């Protein structure tokens, strides 16, 4: 296992910024995120509200705004539903209109996108705005399944999107794949991985289908119109994806994330390293100074709150030390670097072994954790049964 990269900035004081764009051309049948189709009339008002939130937060919590920004991530929804001018307006607010957010040390600016929705000129525009990383929601290269998922692209569009991104000079391009879809086979899994690898991406994220209540896909399954793979088939697909990715030179650095050349998602590493991040936009979640804050998820109420110069936070949760200890442990275990006694002691001034020694010994005996000096990491079986492993660190 290559551990030459160490997330050394894990204990440094820097900030990540997440910007949520909740608009989609089509709402996917499996999606329960804060994302909406058919709201084009609100795009301008939403961008104005998002910029207002950035300023209002900096005025309300000025200390947070003095911390150097390390990563910026546009997520959604589909951020590229916005025009380049609108994206520039958001970045100008973050970078230059106010001096609140020191962004001269940004190492990564990520943008989520859907295949088939942006062209070469738009990609060049993203580069000119400083975007360094693109993440495409490919999901599968099976056209029938793409239609079932209500994706707005087909396999050809996905291939062309990645080819175009690489052709204009993006060095870091990621593709998402979903497994355990209705009717999916192991051969489909192999085809999806091989196609994505052959296209030249440097990062791949894999996700098992989650059947979320209230989604169209959930309703179809409940009505008996669709059958999902069995648990055994699901596990076989998972193992197949891991084998195929490994055979093609992709290393897993987090339970669902793989890279073949160290092209980590540095913004997402913040979450797993239990670092602070600010999040702006409808439905966005922040974590700052041990407080989690959830924003108003609906677009019009979000806009209206900002017009009244009110922060759109609707839920605040102060994280206790006990909860922080639990979160730190299972988030660290998601990564290949694992749970470090040294990092834990620096954060909490206590020993992991003193708190979870019995649980760690049991998990090692079960073959789910492996010990390496003062660090514990998931085995392959441990990653497969991650939820069980993580539950052992919840008191």
Automatic annotation (TrEMBL):
GO terms for molecular function: 4 iron, 4 sulfur cluster binding; coproporphyrinogen oxidase activity; metal ion binding. Residues 9-251 form the Radical SAM core domain. InterPro entries: Aldolase_TIM, Coproporphyrinogen-III_oxidase, Elp3/MiaA/NifB-like_rSAM, HemN_C, HemW-like, rSAM, rSAM_sf. It is found in: Cytoplasm. Keywords: 4Fe-4S, Chaperone, Cytoplasm, Heme, Iron, Iron-sulfur, Metal-binding, S-adenosyl-L-methionine. SUPFAM superfamilies: Radical SAM enzymes. The keyword Chaperone applies. GO terms for biological process: porphyrin-containing compound biosynthetic process. It comes from the Bacteria. Probably acts as a heme chaperone, transferring heme to an unknown acceptor. Binds one molecule of heme per monomer, possibly covalently. Binds 1 [4Fe-4S] cluster. The cluster is coordinated with 3 cysteines and an exchangeable S-adenosyl-L-methionine. This is Heme chaperone HemW. It comes from Veillonella seminalis ACS-216-V-Col6b.
């Amino acid at each position: 296992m290559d551990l030459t990269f160490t997330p050394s900035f894990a204990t440094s004081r820097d900030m990540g910024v997440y910007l949520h764009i909740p608009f989609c051309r089509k709402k996917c049948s499996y999606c329960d995120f804060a994302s909406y189709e058919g709201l084009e009339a609100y795009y301008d008002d939403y961008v104005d509200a998002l910029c207002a939130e950035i300023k209002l937060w900096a005025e309300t919590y000025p200390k947070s705004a003095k911390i150097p920004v390390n990563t910026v991530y546009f997520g959604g929804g589909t951020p590229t539903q916005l025009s380049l001018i609108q994206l520039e307006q958001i970045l100008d607010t973050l970078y230059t209109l106010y001096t609140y957010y020191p962004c001269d040390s940004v190492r990564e600016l990520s943008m989520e996108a859907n295949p088939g929705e942006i062209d070469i000129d738009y990609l060049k525009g993203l580069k000119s705005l400083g975007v360094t990383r693109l993440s495409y929601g490919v999901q599968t290269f099976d056209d029938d399944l793409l239609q079932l998922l209500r994706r707005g692209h087909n396999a050809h569009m996905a291939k062309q999107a990645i080819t175009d991104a690489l052709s204009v000079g993006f060095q870091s391009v990621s593709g998402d794949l979903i497994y355990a879809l209705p009717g999916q086979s192991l051969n489909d899994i192999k085809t999806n991985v091989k196609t994505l690898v052959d296209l030249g991406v440097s990062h791949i994220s894999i996700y098992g289908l989650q059947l979320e209540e209230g989604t169209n896909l959930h309703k179809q399954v409940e009505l008996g119109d669709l059958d999902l793979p069995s648990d055994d088939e699901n596990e076989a697909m998972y193992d197949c994806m891991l084998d195929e990715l490994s055979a093609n030179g992709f290393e897993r650095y987090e339970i669902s994330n793989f890279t073949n050349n160290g092209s980590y998602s540095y913004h997402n590493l913040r979450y797993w390293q239990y670092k602070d991040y600010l999040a702006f936009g409808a439905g966005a979640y922040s974590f700052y100074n041990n407080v989690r804050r959830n924003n108003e998820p609906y677009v019009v109420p979000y806009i209206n709150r900002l017009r009244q110069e009110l922060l759109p936070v609707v839920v605040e949760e102060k994280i206790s030390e006990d909860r922080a200890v639990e979160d730190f442990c299972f988030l660290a275990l998601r990564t290949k670097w694992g749970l470090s006694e040294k990092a834990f002691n620096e954060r909490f001034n206590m020993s992991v072994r003193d708190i979870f020694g019995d649980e760690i010994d049991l998990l090692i005996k079960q073959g789910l954790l492996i010990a390496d000096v003062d660090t514990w990491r998931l085995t392959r079986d441990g990653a497969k049964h991650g939820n069980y492993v993580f539950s052992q660190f919840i008191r």
